[in-house]
Amino acid sequence: MLRVTDVSFAYDDALVLEDIDFSIDKGEHVSIIGESGCGKSTLLKIVYGLLQLKQGEVFWNNTQVLGPLYNLVPGESYMKYLSQDFDLMPYTSVEENISKYLSVFDPEELQERTEELLHMVELEDFAKTKIQHLSGGQQQRVALARVLAQEPELLLLDEPFSHIDNFRKNSLRRNLFAYLKKQEITCLTATHDHNDILPFADRVIVLKDQHIIANEATLALYQNPKNLYIASLFGEANKIPVNIVKSYADTKRRIIVYAHEFKVSSSSGLPVTVQKCYPMGSYYMGVGISDDGQKVYFNTDKDILFGTEVFLNVSIETINQRLISPQEAIE
Hints:
Strand content: 25-35%
Distance between the termini: 37 Å
Radius of gyration: 23 Å
Number of helices: 10
Number of strands: 17
Helix content: 25-40%
Oligomer: single chain
Shape: globular
Mean pLDDT: 90
């Protein structure tokens, strides 16, 4: 189990994280999300022991993770950290970079393990290619295979697919996270991409203003976000008074509504004047202005001309699920 207790951290006088507490069970996959600069990467570096703590402690099981004042070489044998700097050997081949960390006592097992990892990151055809000749995305895949070769108990991933094209991302995600579950490797991932999170993470930790503002099961948090900030990390979202959407509702409380949860009508609902429709492939993402001047994001199955008035509706099930507290409604 990973335990992070009462951790605060500042760069010089700039506070980045304050009173951070959480734990992760063996084999669990947890994602850290939040806006740029909220401390996601800093938190991973703290867990790995790259930064020296003045307040708080980090434990893996019963072993305390100590910072650079205690370890000349950061990190412990049981954990690996894949940063956004890949630190590969540029003049050696892909398979040499991966097999460097495998046992050489059984050549047959070494070859099988290397091939398994090459297959996972879909680089079999580049096994003999030197790192310096690879693209940034290919190098990121080699770096991922190399940390897995070291068989960590705890894996820390910082934007692990940021350099990889969409053609490869989806299959690579499936390969990686299925492998981690099978091997019961605990995983902590910092990411901006909700596609890294929704299908794969067991739990989500949300950072904002130096603090953890949510620590919940992934789908539960997505289906019932506590505020617009959290919802917006998963996709386009709106915060609107419920009585505007349902005129018969006897309340001025506001609810979070994702763009895809609106249904467009020509007669009743929340009136908006369409400003733009962006083609998204199988649908359009519309931007409208409500009577009070608020931007409203919604999905529609057809392009709608600028200046057209349409009405947006939300299902009663969504309204009942999303009703938030009166205190939040006035924020």
